[in-house]
Amino acid sequence: MRGALLIAKKEFLELSKDKKTMFLAFVLPFLLYPAIFGMMAKMGRRDEAQNRNKASRVFVSDPSGVMAGLLASDAKHFDLVQKPEGDLKQAIRDQKLELALDVEPKAAESLQKHETFAVTVTMDESERASEVALKRLKTALATQEKSWVQARLQVLGASAQLAEPLKLTVKNAADVGLEVGKALGRFLPYLLMIMMYTGSMQHGIYATAGEKERHTLLSLMATRLPRNQIILGKLLYIFCMGVIAALLNLLSMGISVAFIGGGTGSSMQALAAIANPMTLGLTFLIMVPLGLFFSNFILLMGIQARNTIEAGSAITPGIFLVVFLGVFAMAPGVDKMAFLSYVPVVNVCLALRKLFSQQFSWIEYLIAFTMTVGLAGLMTLVSTRILNQEKALFKM
Amino acid sequence: MIMLNEVHKSFTVKDRKTRTTKRIDAVRGISLTVKPGEIYGLLGPNGAGKSTTLRMIAGLMDPDAGQIDVCGFDTRKNPESVRGCMGYLSTDMGVYTRFTPRELLRLFGEFQDVDPSTAERRGLHLLDKLQLADFADVKMEGFSSGQKQKVSIARALLHDPKVVIFDEPTTGLDVLTAKTVLDLLRIMREEGRTVIVSTHVMPMVEDICDRVGIIFDGKLHGDAPPRDLLQSRRAKTLDEVFFQLAAESEGGN
After folding, report:
1. Where does the ABC transporter domain start and stop, copy by copy (chain B) (predicted)?
2. How high is the ipTM of this complex?
3. Which of A153, A310, A351, B104 could be stapled to A368 by a disulfide with Cβ–Cβ 3.0 to 4.6 Å?
4. Does B184 have pLDDT greater than 80?
5. What is the pLDDT of residue A200?
6. Contact at 8 Å (CB) between A93 and A86?
7. CA neighbours within 13 Å on the CB side: how many for B109?
8. Which CATH architecture is the domain B1-85+192-253 placed in?
9. Exposure on the CB side of residue A356, measured as CA atoms within 13 A
10. A95 φ/ψ sector (left φ>0, alpha ψ -120 to 50, else beta)
């Protein structure tokens, strides 16, 4: 094992000499995510504030004046505008106004006769401001509608409760930790996998096909280090880089979301609820064989390639597979399919999903862990066997 | 000591046009012995089987048939021991350009089981001999091919090997440095090391080699001291011998 550690040391030393790569691998995640999440949060807050403080522009076609009066009385939320020139739908699409209301001409008469009158609303579902305007309209109408119904019931001499047979009260059984955990349980395995794979990919290519391209592999092979130790050393390096990349990216993401994205007491509370030693420990534990599995694949493809382009072409399609499996494991209902506990990689995603959702099952976790360890071991055996062959190492 | 006994090596290559596989016999029954304190010159055109023979001696490739012993170890059974007692240099070898020569030599010292301080001392001594000591702490990214070759030579000799295999050692070197390398080879002979050199530079072979073997089509021809070879072939230079053998080889084919 000494030889493998020496080779891994060489790889890390080589990496440490490349300041640009060091910056991209270790510093950039701590600048990128705070910048992205900070910008997103700022834009979201600005948009929200704009929508909250700005009155929705509404054109009302209401000859009897039933609705126009109602909206005009709420100047904080509604700004009644003149009919725009040209097509009304186009004017809404052009964001000249948010809503257009067409109220039946005999609305006032219908209201007096205790009959129903129709209101047609035109809006742009693709625009957030238009959605907000509709929500405000519905809120305003709901209050007004209730008072109209109560008035009608009063005329009939009936109780006001007639229109309200039940009063619904909703209580949330989940705490903030569970809510965040469930959301995180869906995304985290996907993020872990994609970050581990992409994080180790470039380093793997550099350490394998890159060595062939730079004609340095032969100088390593000419030393007294056994060939399988050279291969294991490279595997160790690729694996470490994958795990480091995943951990750094997630750490930066977590910090960014907690402090910049939300920064509220509840988000900190949620983070504290899921960031307990057992959850983190079990997550890291299962990452080890999964990372080894990915690293072996990268090593196998990389060292058999003649150059870095060939290696890149062989390794890149792996991203699609990782994305597909990650997205599949995120889908609703997938966690209920028992047989998926026996499908490699997917079972790791599901085990983590349940771990974060407070539905953890030791059996499922152990099955996933054992299978992934077995798979990683088998892959290591196969790759050392294949890579020991002259034709793999001397393929130029 | 290097001993090759009836060594064979073949490769299978794919013909992309005809989509068939072809067997190429790179080495066909080569036998030779190189004793300690001897410099053996291996000559031959490109693709004759020189590099394959040297790679097999270095334990980097296994022979299909026959046996190779280096420092008393069978290359197939103890490749690590063979590589431990041998310094191998090839034109195919690059250097890790992100390192300085000092860093590289320290690292390779560890690979060869030499403690870092000894590796550094020996490495600096070799760099000094090769007139590269002033560049010991300069990143190799901007090095010329000759400077890189000098670092490779120092890397190959770092662990004080008993057997030295140099494949085209003077390629890319200026006349003065090439002379330094040849002087280094002579010193190694005096120190009792076993040396095999492969080259295209005939005057160099006549100058420093005790014996010469010429490889054509994977077979060894004329395994003898340069002077004997010239006499037996009635030639004035090794170039002439080379052309004669090439003509015979083509005639034979």
Report:
1. 2-242
2. 0.88
3. A351
4. yes
5. 93
6. no
7. 19
8. 3-Layer(aba) Sandwich (3.40)
9. 26
10. left
* Mutation to test the B interface, candidates A218, A219, A308, A388, most B Cβ within 10 Å: A219
A13 touching chain B per CB within 8 A: yes
pLDDT at B41 over 80: yes
CB contact under 8 A, A17 and B98: yes
On average, the pLDDT of chain A sits at: 85
Q: Does A125 contact B at CB distance below 8 Å?
A: no
With beta carbons less than 8 A apart as the criterion, state whether B7 and B65 touch: yes
A120-124, long-range: CB < 8 A, 24+ apart? A122/A88, A122/A89, A122/A92, A123/A92, A123/A98, A123/A99, A124/A92, A124/A93, A124/A95, A124/A98
The alpha-carbon gap from B28 to the nearest alpha carbon of chain A, in Å, equals: 19
Question: Which of these ranges, A48-57, A271-280, B162-171, has the smallest mean pLDDT?
Answer: A271-280
**Touching check for A240 and chain B: CB below 8 Å?**
no
pLDDT tier for residue A262 given thresholds of 50, 70 and 90: low
What mean pLDDT comes out for the span A366-395?
82
Asked if residue A250 has pLDDT above 90, the reply is no
With contact defined as beta carbons under 8 Å apart, do A291 and A200 qualify? yes
| Residues facing residue A61 across a β-bridge | A102
- Give the best residue of B96, B115, B141 to mutate against chain A (max A CB count within 10 A): B96
Task: Quickly state the pLDDT bin for A227 (edges 50, 70, 90).
Answer: confident
